[in-house]
Each structure stands twice: as structure tokens, then as C-alpha cells.
């Protein structure tokens, strides 16, 4: 009986953390936030600094011998994959989901030269530590750019690639003007729960807010209420610069593994759109067109378009997201 009560208390703790509507101040390490699965930490010596990467390594009850790595987007962390992890576990997959350096519970360095190559190397170092040499790889949003770079850098390790509404399907720096890291930082400092909510309503959820979205908004906006926020904002400014200056779009043709594109066609995410000319603003971030263009660029790729779905299919419409994903994984 005591064991059952303890299990129920643990479940309640996880549930309360991710269902609370109240916005709370969160420190840079999310130390008061409990992820839905056990968090492990990978020590990392990088750029002369001692860092740590948080990650989830969730083992299935009935393993099928396959490993899938989930890479989060810029406004997210590993916990955002909760429902996806549970479903993949049911089907026998071992799921690994890291918080990249600068995100979630991982270290937020005061100075770090962010590159997709560096983040790919960091991610591989976790897999090397776990003695994993073959994976399937799913990247969402910024994680899609990182997953592309990983697949290009470590083709022998990447068995299959899935890109879910990845950003970087166009080269933003040829469409709009550059903004310095200092300017990015000042912009990040202005973020509030209202600005984040308005952005998400516009690009994620088609102006319809549901309570199920609150936990993911609160994990992001809670940082803005804490004295640590300048550190968060600075790292966010650096990663925005990484996205803008390090396109992967020209290298899609070099991807070797079978690739699935899951594209919510209502998405209109485009970095730096507000700085583009008026005639270009309406032409940026057209995922109903970019998905098709990208599928043509990537050899051995399949496109699944989700009509009337925005930037976050695995949260907005999980059933429509998970079906093509699992079908592709099981081929």
C-alpha cells in the first residue's frame, strides 16, 4: 500500500507541474520544475568550460531494439516531448531527448560560440557515452535544423530522419536584414507572457488557446519573471544568430538517409520577417509551399502535410502527428 501511495504522489507531482495554470518565476536551470521523466546529466567539457547537458533516456517495457532521439525547438525543451515519448515507448522504442546547451535544465553559459556543428557534437557525445551507434532522429523547429546538421555530420549513425515543421527551409539572411546579437538581446529582454502567448496564438494555434498549451507557455514565460532572465535572454540572442547565419537549406540534397517531413501547412514562422521589405514579408514562412520544395530537395524523402495545423503538430494535433511518424519508423 505504501508503495502504491508513493507512486501516486510521484505521478501527481509530475501532473501538477505540467497542468498548473499559474505563471511562476523560474530560474535559469528550471530547478523547481520536475520533468515527466527522470532527468540525467551529461558532463561536457566544451570551449574551455565545464558544462552539463540534461537529457531524458526513457526505456520501454518491451524493447524493439531501436533508439530514437528527439531534438527540441528554440522555445522548448525535452519535456515538451512528453506525449510523444510515452507513445513511442509503448511501441518499444528507447527514447533519448536532450536539453541542448542554453536550453531547459542544461547549462546557460555566459559566453559560448553556438553552432549547429557544436550542438550536434554535444548530442553525439551523449550517445557515445551511452554506447549507442545507430539512431533514428526527429527534430522540431530549430531542432529540425540541428537534426539536419547531425544527419549530415554523422550519416553512418543516422538510420532515419524526421523533420517536424523545421525552421530554416529558406535562407533568412537573403530575405531580410541582419540584426546584431546585441539587438537580439534587447529584443529578448522585452519578452513577457503576453508577447509569448500572442506569438504562439499566431503561429502555433490559429488564435485558439486551450488549457493544454499552458504548461509550455509557462515554462518559457516563467523565466521572464526571474532575476536570471538576462542570462536566458543572452543565450537566446546567441541561438537566434546561429539560426540566421547558419542555413542548412543548401545541403538538403546531401542527406543520405530516408527522411520524413511532417508539415503543418498553416505555419508561417520566419526568422526576421519584421525586418524584411513589405513585399517579402507575405512571401516568407509559407510552409504550404516550403514543405513541397524541401521534399523535392531531399533524396528519398516523403512529405506528410497536415492541413490547418501550425508550427507545433505534436502538441496541437497529436493523433495526426503520431500516425505518420510511427508508420515511417516501422517501415
TrEMBL record:
Name this protein carries in UniProt: Alpha/beta hydrolase
SUPFAM superfamilies named among the record's database cross-references: alpha/beta-Hydrolases
Alphabetical UniProt keywords: Hydrolase, Signal
Signal peptide segment: 1-19
Domain of life: Bacteria
InterPro entries: AB_hydrolase_1 (IPR000073), AB_hydrolase_fold (IPR029058), AB_hydrolase_sf (IPR050266)
Species of the source: Chryseobacterium gotjawalense
Keyword Hydrolase: yes
Domain AB hydrolase-1 positions: 67-199
Molecular function per GO: hydrolase activity
